[in-house]
Amino acid sequence: ADLYRVEGWGSPYFSINARGNVAIRPKGSEDGSDELDLLELIQAVRKRNVELPMILRFPDIVQHRMAQLQGCFDTAIGKYGYQGHFQGVFPVKCNHDRYLIEDIVEYGRNFRFGLEAGSKPELLIAIANLRENDDALLVCNGYKDEIYMESVLLARQLGTNAVIVLEQVDELPLLLHVSRKLDVRPVIGVRAKLSTKHDGHWGGTSGDKGKFGLTIPEIVKVVYTLREEGMLDCLQLLHYHVGSQVADIAIIKEAMREGSHLYCELATMGAAMGYIDVGGGLGIDYDGTKGNRSGASTNYSMQNYANDVVAALLDACVVKGVRQPVIASESGRALASHSAVLVFDVLNDSENAESDALRNLAVLEEHHAAGLGSIQQGWPPKQDGLATNGLQPARRDPGQYLLSTFYQVFATIDQTNFQEAFNDSKQFKQEAANLFKLGCLSLEQRAQAESLHTAICHRVLAYARNEPQMPAELSALSEAMASVYHVNLSVFRSAVDTWAIDQLFPIMPLQRLSEEPTTMATLADLTCDSDGKITRFIGPDSTPSSVLPVHELRQGEAYYLGMFLGGVYQEVMGSLHNLFGGLNVVHIRAKPKPGRAAGGYAIEHVVKGQTMEEVLRTVQYEGEDMMESLRNEAEEAVDEGRLTLEDASALLMNFNRSLKSYTYLKSRSQ
Ligand code: PLP
């Protein structure tokens, strides 16, 4: 059952239960008192008319992660005797969901947890949420104009602990101007470009040439300017961010050494200082390998991370005799990734299994026994005009000859000759195509040849898998022969990083996990785009596999797949490719139910996904206008007798119903 390595990436939240379904413990409990069966949950949600695909969001998981992060820092601070505390901020860009952010702020009150904004709209979200929180930080990053700065300074007047972080040199004169205009003294941070660089996908923000932050000479100039303005007391925070999903703890250590000394130097130069904000980067284990360095995993734990941050800072502060600052971090991925499960169903599969190929052959023979003859009985091939005197060459029916020889390859394949059989099969398939082009093979004969090739390839693979090492050519065949499961989903909308940066997410069936999966599949989405597919999954070893082990679909039974750890970045970065819209989102909280030992929950919010009308509006179509022009056309058609009145009204009703409905397909079944 650990084909999907659930324990590795999912613990303590996800596991497989005795019924063979994925189970979830939103509070991460050890005793399972909060355990829910994901399949039951989906069925219960669907009974409430929430259609697939959907995102199930578990706010308890975010809380658990926040408490864990705080706990790790508290432990590290206690262990090293550090003279400051930790207070995190959640980067709003990671997931803008209103209920999620409200929940983070509400729960975060217990430990001064704040927000980070990276744009003007995010600033509005943060200001609206943090107003009453005294100590919680509002870290204001990103490009800023005058109105951005004014909003921050006014929010400060309101009582929000807002810090303007300078990311560009020309932000300082603007800030000084706004500060004078409003007569408000800002709390200022500087974002530093560290020389420490992280090489993963998400490392573009780091290093001297990173897109964001001030270089060391620029930071020194900021200090001089503020000194001249008599505002060194305003400079209180140093921020840096070496990139997201840092796989190797060595990068964190290195950045912390550089950042800690930079912090201390700023304090020594007379800046008031008080906070260090170490950015995001705390990674998670997407493939459950606990440390392969592909970027899909990390070689450190959250505690290890906290220890290294605190230790480096303490060391620099002691050496330089600087007061130990409040430590902030901007972890988003590590806090919210686990909290969302993307649930989608399989609509159908391609006819690509061996059984499909054999069935096709049988059907072809049955339908055309007379015309084609049975290829199985066509051996040895009949020869027309048999040679009688050694002078006249033998002639064969090329199609019949090819097919019966091809069939022999299939019938005699075994462990000793599978590679040879594969080579022959490729050649015969090509010859069948050539004969077809010359008009010597009928369409049905060509179908027989192709079905034979498919059946042979499956057998070849079965034998190849018994070998200690799969021949190189045949590993590519494994992907080519995989079934294609068509899923009710747009990759571009809901799993964009699988396409954009080849990111690996854990994807697995949510049921039948006590049954051996018998099929290898790739996933194809609903879009008309050849990139709309997923071919990267957790593999049997630390390298990703191009195929996902799945079960054969059963007639009339929904087959659910889940994509896990996608709780950050995916939803908001998704696009409307082919006009597949936003998904239904259901917020579920674990809640003990009287009389039940485990498994109580409450559905707190159902946020309906976009309807076709809403999606069409984003590209300037108004449903009402579309209805109106269709109505006019239908009237005309009825007048001219091209359409009955009943058909016209059915057409209009259908159109109208579509406008109000979800952009995805109806599921195969309940
Ligand atoms: N802070 C900044 C400035 C970022 O650019 C990012 C994302 O890259 C984050 C925080 C969040 O990082 P992570 O999701 O790795 O925690």
From TrEMBL:
First-level EC class: lyase
Organism: Klebsormidium nitens (Green alga)
Pathway: Amine and polyamine biosynthesis; agmatine biosynthesis; agmatine from L-arginine: step 1/1
Modified sites of kind N6-(pyridoxal phosphate)lysine: K93
Family to which the UniProt record says this protein belongs: Belongs to the Orn/Lys/Arg decarboxylase class-II family. SpeA subfamily.
Record keywords: Decarboxylase, Lyase, Magnesium, Metal-binding, Polyamine biosynthesis, Pyridoxal phosphate, Spermidine biosynthesis
Record domain Orn/DAP/Arg decarboxylase 2 N-terminal: where: 86-336
The protein's name: Arginine decarboxylase
Domain Arginine decarboxylase helical bundle: 401-477
Entry EC no(s): 4.1.1.19
Superkingdom of the source species: Eukaryota
Active-site residues (renumbered): C528
Keyword set includes Lyase: yes
